[in-house]
Amino acid sequence: QKEVEQNSGPLSVPEGAIASLNCTYSDRGSQSFFWYRQYSGKSPELIMFIYSNGDKEDGRFTAQLNKASQYVSLLIRDSQPSDSATYLCAVNDAGNNRKLIWGLGTSLAVNP
Amino acid sequence: KAGVTQTPRYLIKTRGQQVTLSCSPISGHRSVSWYQQTPGQGLQFLFEYFSETQRNKGNFPGRFSGRQFSNSRSEMNVSTLELGDSALYLCASSSQRGAGTGELFFGEGSRLTVL
Predict the structure, then answer these.
(1) Chain centroid to CA A47
(2) Most CB atoms closer than 10 Å: which of A61, A72, B86, B111?
(3) Residue pLDDT, tens place only, B43-100
(4) CB of A56 within 8 A of CB of A50?
């Protein structure tokens, strides 16, 4: 059973701090990694994707990938209350690229 | 550019009934995927359609079915509803063939309550 695991949280950080969200995956052959944000009552939206080992930065967001450790993380710098949401990690199924394997999500609360 | 449109947004059914949900993808997107989201199970993949053909299917019973039309609009049907079918049903479109290759754009979802 291929799995993506995330700490369900809630992860609580003060405004302006760095929020660190982590995700581990079981499918060693996975090549594509996605972070989606889902506000309460809304649908998921893609905020970051990463394909290569290392870091990828986009504004306040940084995705980090370590394929050897099967670990992907999302860092949010200068966290804002508007970042409060559930963050979903998704990984492509190496055996079937038509599918994504989803984590259950980490709930993030940024306190003013 | 219009987003993914799902109808109806909310619906209430009773056990044993059937339901049809509709999804209109972003113009030009040919891939449509359907997901079931519940608090305990998260996002569960139902199926994906590309160019009117089901390309992949998740681990759901045969009561769950779908189709895609030539204009890429898609419908999913759930027959003989059970209480456990209560969930948010999300449709996602993609310009890429295969959800694992690109960005998914989600609709607002259809929230189904089965009584």
Answers:
(1) 9
(2) A72
(3) 999 999 998 999 888 999 999 999 999 999 999 999 999 999 999 999 999 887 655 5
(4) yes
Beta bridge partner(s), residue B22: B7, B75
Interface with B, mutate which of A38, A99, A104, A106 (most B CBs under 10 A): A99
Encoding tokens for residue B84?
């456990």
Which among B84, B42, B41, B38 has a CA at the least distance from the CA of B61?
A: B84
Report the residue count for chain B. 115
Q: Name the residue with tokens 């967001």.
A: A61
By DSSP bridging, strand A106-111 and strand A11-14 are parallel
Distance CA A95, CA A30 (A): 8
Smallest Cβ–Cβ distance between A102 and the set B43, B101, B108 belongs to: B43
